[in-house]
Write a structure and sequence with these properties.
This protein is mainly β. It has 1 helix and 15 strands; from the N terminus they run H-E-E-E-E-E-E-E-E-E-E-E-E-E-E-E. The chain has a single domain, classed as Ribbon (Umud Fragment, subunit A), CATH 2.10.109.10. Helices cover 12% and strands 40% of the residues. Strands 1, 2, 3, 4, 12, 13, 14 and 15 form an 8-stranded antiparallel sheet that branches. A 4-stranded antiparallel sheet has the order 7-6-5-11, with no helix packed on it. Strands 8-9-10 form a 3-stranded antiparallel sheet, with no helix packed on it. A hairpin with a 2-residue loop joins strand 6 and strand 7. The radius of gyration is 20 Å and the shape is globular.
Length: 203
């Protein structure tokens, strides 16, 4: 191969590498799922690709954000409430703007993401915009399943884990999450990758 052709090839490769790095930094960024709070949709150690493009938040989105408590920890939860929405849990059921969200039973799932395996009841919860996803429930008792009435403040979001009995989320206003300012959202998770299952698009 002539020297000129080698130089052209090197230039093309350099441009392609720069484009790939720019794509990673500005369009999608990979993150590792840190906990079992999003089981069964996401499991600890899953690699998720997060879109960095600006978007209008929608209920049901899986979003990655930095902890609003200043720790800088990167977390992932599902967006349930937008500014002005009212949210409450009663006997383990989600109530959004005064309406109990339907949750169709879908069997049982073993969750081994915590200290030991737990068999949890699964159901497909559906939001008013038609977005459906599987949530896990072990019990309907306790504070997390019988919460106060929340009103999401302007500029904030209300986020829940799909693994409802094993998630520190917006139900705990004094915890590491609480209401999440929109400015703390890194982006929407669009693709999940794991060595033991096929890649999955996250709606």
């Amino acid at each position: 191969m002539r020297r000129a052709n080698l130089a052209e090839l090197a230039l093309v490769l350099a441009v392609a590498l720069a484009a790939a790095l720019a794509l990673r930094a500005w369009v999608v960024t990979p993150y590792l799922v840190p906990s079992g709070s999003m089981v069964p949709a996401l499991r600890p150690g899953d690699l998720i690709l997060v879109s960095r493009l600006p978007y209008a938040p929608h209920r049901g989105d899986v979003v990655v954000f930095t902890s609003p408590r200043g720790s800088g920890e990167v977390l992932v939860k599902r967006l349930i409430g937008l500014p002005g929405d009212t949210v409450q849990m009663r006997a383990g059921r989600l109530i959004l703007n005064g309406e109990t969200m339907p949750c169709a039973p879908s069997g049982w799932i073993e969750d081994a993401s915590g200290l030991g395996p737990v068999v949890a009841r699964a159901c497909v919860e559906t939001l008013p915009n038609g977005r459906g996803y599987t949530v896990l429930k072990v019990t309907a008792d306790g504070f997390a399943n019988n919460t106060p009435h929340y009103t999401v403040p302007p500029g904030d979001l209300f986020l829940l884990g799909d693994n409802r009995d094993d998630s520190e989320d917006s139900r705990f206003l004094d915890g590491p999450v609480g209401y999440v300012p929109e400015r703390d959202v890194i982006g929407r998770a669009v693709l999940a990758l794991a060595p033991w299952r096929a890649p999955r698009w996250l709606r």
